[in-house]
Design a protein that fits this description.
Layout: H1 3-17, E1 23-37, E2 43-54, E3 59-67, E4 76-78, E5 83-90, E6 93-107, H2 111-115
Parallel strand pairs: 1-6
Antiparallel strand pairs: 1-2, 2-3, 4-5, 5-6
Amino acid sequence: MDILSTALAVCLASVTFSPAEDVACDRVDLAEVNHFYDEHGKRVFDQVIFYDWSPAMSRYQVRAWRLLKSPGQYPTKNWERGDWSAVWHDGEVLREVRATSFRETWTQYDPELIERDYLPKEKRRDLVKPIGFRQ
């Protein structure tokens, strides 16, 4: 079993053994894994960006983003449901985000940073916070 399969199995097992109320679940329209490179072609970081479709703006708007730190954060296709899912520990919270669509990009700019011109961070709808969660 390779490392990614093992990590996915551990994540899924932790979801299976945790009560549903311990998992912060979200649905988004698009999940993007972005690999950001500097002007010399050196990878700076990898991130997963979650988007909701805005009918008023006729475009995807960033909802939230996280640095890609573990294999479980990488969205995987759920063939039974037909969507994409990422499950990981987001700080103290076990989080699952399901997306209708998925894309992977390699850029020399940060798409999340550019999107702040369209929808500032403070106006974004963030991922859910579980009841009783303290920051």
